[in-house]
């Protein structure tokens, strides 16, 4: 899946793209699917590139030029391992090992390498195209340097907060982050609770009434949910708390998760 400026697009079953250095027979026009692909790829802000099974570049858009520093002419026919490090080969090998269609749909995070030899974190999604005689892989690559820096800054900030539990939830309401102060207030260690549903923190009667999901729904629709309620610690004890749930959305308005803060009024 390709995420670009908030828009999410998955490209599957790509048309085979003739190599950048290949000459097209006189009078032969682009196929409709190939023309559409090129038109989209050349206007994309992210890097879109293709390579054959040997890992040699067959397509390199303007976004790839900006991201990696190589022009299309410099990249044509070159091994991607030399151009962008081991990220490409790792992704290809992961797919070939899985041999499953859904292996192509998972976005993975890897390290890329620019022309000036600097490395940076990237997200990479693969799509397979061509036929059995000419297998091509198309990658959609996003530089996630700023996101990683923001995540680290947020982690440092949350780890320094006192007297308030602050944690992140994924869009489905499962715990996605956990800091030391949250552990002290709730009683759970990170390895115990990450991935668990937030209903763990509510009383059985509130869970039965659907209160946890109600809070998420209100927050997603209205931008904020706030209440005071009885919550439950790991040891089963209850405490009166102020709860605020705020949605996290990307630039395109797509819900990415929630931040929940809990203030213990009984402590």
Describe, in plain words, how this protein is organized in 3D.
The chain has helices at residues 32-43, 62-68, 72-75, 80-84, 87-98, 145-159, 180-186, 190-193, 204-208, 211-222, and strands at residues 2-4, 7-9, 47-52, 57-60, 108-113, 119-131, 134-143, 164-169, 225-232, 238-249, 255-264. By secondary structure, it is an alpha+beta fold. It folds into 2 domains: 2-143, Beta-Lactamase (2-Layer Sandwich); 147-264, PAS domain (Beta-Lactamase, 2-Layer Sandwich). A 5-stranded antiparallel sheet has the order 4-3-7-6-5, with helices on both faces. Strands 8-11-10-9 form a 4-stranded antiparallel sheet. A two-stranded antiparallel ribbon has the order 1-2. The two termini are 45 Å apart.
Give the SSE layout.
Blueprint: E1 2-4, E2 7-9, H1 32-43, E3 47-52, E4 57-60, H2 62-68, H3 72-75, H4 80-84, H5 87-98, E5 108-113, E6 119-131, E7 134-143, H6 145-159, E8 164-169, H7 180-186, H8 190-193, H9 204-208, H10 211-222, E9 225-232, E10 238-249, E11 255-264
Antiparallel strand pairs: 1-2, 3-4, 3-7, 5-6, 6-7, 8-11, 9-10, 10-11
Placed side by side, the strands forming the largest sheet appear as 4-3-7-6-5
Provide a count of the helices.
10
Q: Count the E strands.
A: 11
- CATH architecture label of the largest domain: 2-Layer Sandwich
Short précis:
The protein is of the alpha+beta class and 267 residues long. It is built from ten helices and eleven strands.
């Amino acid at each position: 899946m390709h995420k670009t400026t908030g828009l999410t697009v998955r490209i599957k079953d790509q048309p085979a793209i003739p190599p950048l250095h290949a000459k097209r027979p006189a009078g032969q026009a682009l196929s409709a699917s190939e023309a559409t692909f090129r038109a989209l790829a050349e206007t994309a802000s992210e890097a879109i590139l293709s390579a054959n099974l040997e890992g040699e570049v067959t397509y390199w858009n303007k976004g790839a030029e900006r991201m990696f520093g190589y022009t299309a002419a410099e990249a044509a026919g070159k091994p991607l391992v030399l151009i962008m490090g081991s990220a490409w080969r790792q992704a290809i090998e992961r797919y070939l090992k899985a041999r499953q269609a859904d292996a192509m749909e998972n976005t993975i995070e890897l390290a890329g390498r620019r022309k000036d030899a600097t490395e940076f974190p990237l997200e990479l999604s693969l799509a397979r195209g061509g036929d059995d005689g000419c297998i091509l892989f198309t990658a959609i690559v996003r530089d996630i340097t700023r996101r990683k820096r923001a995540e680290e800054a947020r982690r440092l900030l949350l780890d320094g907060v006192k007297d308030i539990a602050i944690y992140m939830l994924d869009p489905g309401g499962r715990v996605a982050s956990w800091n030391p102060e949250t552990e002290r207030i709730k009683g759970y260690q990170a390895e115990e609770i990450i991935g668990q549903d937030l209903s763990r923190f509510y009383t059985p009667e509130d869970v039965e009434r659907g209160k946890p999901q109600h809070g998420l729904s209100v927050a997603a629709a209205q931008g904020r949910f706030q209440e005071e309620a009885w919550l439950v610690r790991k040891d089963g004890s209850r405490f009166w708390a102020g709860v605020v749930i705020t949605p996290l959305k990307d630039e395109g308005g797509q819900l990415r998760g929630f931040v929940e803060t809990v203030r213990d009024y009984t402590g």
